[in-house]
Amino acid sequence: MANHNPQNPGDKATFRFRFAPSPNGWLHLGHAYSALFTERAARAAGAELLLRIEDIDQTRSRQEYYDGIREDMNWLGINFAPNIRFQSNHFADYKKALDQLAGLGILYPCAATRKDIDAEISRKATPDTWPRDPDGGPLYPGIWRDRSDADYARLTESGVPLAIRLDMAKAVALYKNRNTFPLTFEEQGTGPDGQSGKIQPDPQIWGDVVLVRKDTPTSYHLSVVVDDADQGITHITRGQDLFHATAIHRLLQILLELPEPVYCHHRLIRAGDDRKLSKSAMDASLKSLRQSGTSAEEVRHMLGFDNPD
Ligand code: GLU
Predict the structure, then answer these.
(1) Long-range contacts of range 276-284, CB-CB < 8 Å, 24 or more positions apart?
(2) Secondary-structure class of domain 91-227 per CATH
(3) What confidence category does residue 265 fall into, taking pLDDT thresholds of 50, 70 and 90?
(4) Pocket test for ligand 1, best of 51, 85, 87, 238 (most atoms within 8 A of CB)
(5) Does domain 12-89+270-309 have CATH number 3.40.50.620?
(6) For the residues 249-261, what does the mean pLDDT come to?
(7) Domain spans of the chain, in order of start
(8) pLDDT tens digit string along 122-154?
(9) Going by fewer Cβ within 10 Å, which terminus of the chain is more open, N or C?
């Protein structure tokens, strides 16, 4: 990977990479690939390698999975800088960013359940003609968008669980108002369709994304953008399944006036039947491979990381 960094060209000492697993299941070979890929890229760039534990989901995150992550990484021989960041220690930071976005008038509360969303979509169209986001989910049909202040006040006072959504059309309009340059990012790896180089993503393909979930006071998109900036991450290496999410992250970075990292999306390790590996499908965990006598060298070899460089 080239040592290009739009923030600080040529200053290798400040390069920072991160591996950011969620402690909500046992890591599998896909995570090992991502961690080894990140370690190799960080080493080649002479960068620091940080570990971030993405534990905003307090109901699914468990100590034993965190311990498992540490064991897996030790086993693979991957060393991180000592300052590990736990997202659960940073809810106040996410709230600060949220307040900043709220001040821009581009957020709104939403009480809709999945059932309400499905019902609204069936009312407006046949479900198979309704637009979908890159992950295959139906775009939010706008049930709680553009309500009166009185409606929102009543909703907030009612005590029902609320999400907070980004009004994507307003956010993009605000972006265009403030910037004459298009929204872009630098892809040093490849997207799922071979995209690389200067990418001009369109965040509107996601519709009104959730920035605060009903069950936790933040979301993946909000936290990841705040964390990467707070940790001074210059290079984001992660799986191609997150390539399209970069559109949202770049939009939020610009609206929050945060620095621009470089992105490097990598291929996904697939299961025998060509599906993406997943924790919930009980794909072979690194822990079980380790316990059944597979060596870390064999895993490195299997994933194409034989040579330390
Ligand atoms: N926590 C995410 C995952 O386990 C990675 C997030 C990221 O790299 O942006 O897939």
Answers:
(1) 276/30, 276/241, 277/28, 277/29, 277/30, 278/28, 279/24, 279/25, 279/26, 279/27, 279/28, 280/25, 283/28, 283/29, 283/30, 284/28, 284/29
(2) alpha beta
(3) very high
(4) 238
(5) yes
(6) 98
(7) 12-89+270-309, 91-227
(8) 999 987 899 999 999 999 999 999 999 999 999
(9) C
